[in-house]
Each structure stands twice: as structure tokens, then as C-alpha cells.
Amino acid sequence: MSTVTEPNWLAERRERGAALSLELPLPDARTAGWEFTNIRNLDLEAYPAAPGTDATAGSATEGLFDGLDASAQDDLPEGVIVSSLSAAAEEHRELVERHLGTIVSTDDAFVARNETAWETGAFVYVPRDVQLEKPIVFTVVQDADQTQLNWRTLVVLEEGARAEVWEQYLSATPELDGLFNTVVELVVGDGAHLRYVNGQDLSERSWIFGSQRAEVGRDASLDWVALGFGSGRGKVRMETKLAGRGAHGKVTGAYAGHARQHLDFDTTQEHAAPNTVSDLAFRGVLQDRANAVWRGMIRVDPGAQQTDAFQESRNLLLSRKAHADAIPGLEILANDVRCTHAAAIAQVDPDQMFYLMSRGLPRAAAHRLVVDGFLQALVERFEEGPVREVLSAALERRLGAVLPAA
Length: 406
Description:
The chain is an alpha/beta fold.
């Protein structure tokens, strides 16, 4: 833990987190939501805390978001704060204290450990009615082998603000054995709009555990994108709470696994106010012996009338030993709603292959075209422009790593 003197409120939070981390056991196969992800081989003692790591923020981006034109620190409008979370806790104490820990609960073993051990992270604050022209990008690289990196992100948009925040988690080497434990809190004020893109391309020897949650205010909107390419095993929870009347949430997820990767996403769309809309789409491609789990829940709270919610999960299996579990769910406590879900797990359609090959394409090229088209359907959820281009390129690069060479 950092030797810098911390504010009393933060030290107290760490003490409570430390106590909870001793009380809360790690989940097992009997824990709700963990039935398909086995972590009994995880030895937390084998991963001591990593040295403090600051994210690289700025326009020089590599990795998943290569080529994205991002804001530089000196381009930011007055009042906008982009910094490490540890620095913000010192320099903007009232602001951080007001929001930190208000979105994600510590009743989870991994969140409690993050609460205790995080040394730094990312902090973004956009004042009322301020609109950023370019994305803010954070790149986090875990570079110490056999360590546990606890990363914390807090994004706050005040009423009427507009911003894009892109965050990527990477490993320094393909063979790095590490544990990445992340907590993300997104506060979207009334009438604000946030696009948050979170991607991980960690070493396939790494563990990842994530608790990510957003609260969206009245007439506000959240456009959330998740890319899951790396890691060997773990679980990421993504929860969107539409807390204000007229709030809108769109969540788009893509993953591509191979070898013996195990990818697990657990999503929740909570409608806590009337006249709210959510739209979730996840697609995954699995090669070799890779496994994926997607568990999605649409929850409509009492009084959240005229809710409109949709979720879908589609998986494409590229080998006979690849496996996917898609588990949609509904909890509806209001009577004037429209909630639908869809889930599909399939292999490459032989009719599509026949059609393409009958027109002269070699088998490998036809196969790649079908798989590419399956994932690119997600990209079409975005308007033409830089976002669409960067996401499309990231998917193309990942498919190049997952699919066998022609």
C-alpha cells in the first residue's frame, strides 16, 4: 500500500475493506453466478500486490485502440479533471469522497480486496454542460510477473455533460502470470451522455476479475462497450442501473477466445425508473477448447413502468471442443413493460460456406469471411466514424490471432 499519507475517509474505507476481505470467502461452484467458472485453483497468496501503476493517458494509443485520436491533457476544457485516482483523492478530496464507492458495493470478495489494496487508478470528472470533443484514453499495463494489480476507475459526468472514456488493460509480455482485479464506477448525471469503452487483452496466463457498474440519471444515456480478448480465466460483472426517468443504456460486448481460455461475462440491466430503455448485445467466437459464459439479467423494479428492454447473446463455435453457455434472465416487478431476450449457440453455417466457395473463394477465405461478418454485426451498432473504425480494426486483429493461418 502507498506510503503517502491518505485522507482519513480513504484510510477508513481501506480498513473496512480489509475487514470484509477477511470475512467474505472467495466464490465457489455453489455461489450464485459462479456455477460455470471454477476458481478453486486460484491461490491469492501466490499473487502479492503489484507496485503502484499509473495509466498512460493521452493521444499516443497502442494495443486494442491503436490509431484512436484522443484528448491530450492540455486540450481539456476548464474544469475537466483527468488524473490518477490516487492524485485526485489528494487534490480533489471532496469530489472523490462524494462519489467513490457509491456505485459498486463491497459485499463481494474481490471488490473488498480492491477497496483495500488499490494504489492508483483512473479519475475523470466533467463539469455540468461541458462537452469533450475527443475521447479520453487510459492504457494500463501489468508488467510485474506473479503479482496482483488492483485497479480502480471512477468516471463522473455532471448534468448535461458529454464525454467518451476508453480504457484498456494489457500485459507487458504474452507469458506474464498475473491477477488483474478491477472496479469501475460510472456516474452519468441527468441529461449527460457517456460512451465508455473497456477492453482487455491480458496475457492468456492471467486471471481477471471485474466489478463494473454504472448509474444513469434522468434523460441521460450510456453507451458501454466491452472487449474481452485476453486472460485465461476469471469473471467480469457489468451492471447498468437506469436510475432516472427517461434514461437509456446500450451495452455491446465482443469476445474471441482460443486454446483453453475461459471468458465469463455477467451483465445486469436494472430499470429503476419509468420510461427507461436498455439494449444489450453480446457476440463471441470460440476456437480450440475455449469456453465462454454469458449470464444476463433484465431487472425491472416496482414502479418502473413503460420499460423497454432487450438482450441477446450469440456464440459461434469454430471447433467441436469449444463450448459456450448463454443464460438470459428476467425479473419483472412492473406490469407495463416490454422485455425480450434471445440466445444462440451455433457453428459456422455450411450453407454460407457452400455459397461463398461456389463463387470461387477458397475454404479458409470463406470461413474467415463468415466469422468476420458474425462479429462485424456488432460494429454496425455504431455510427460511421472513428469509433466504428477502431472497434472494427480491433476485432480484425483479434481474429487474426484466434483463427488458424490459411
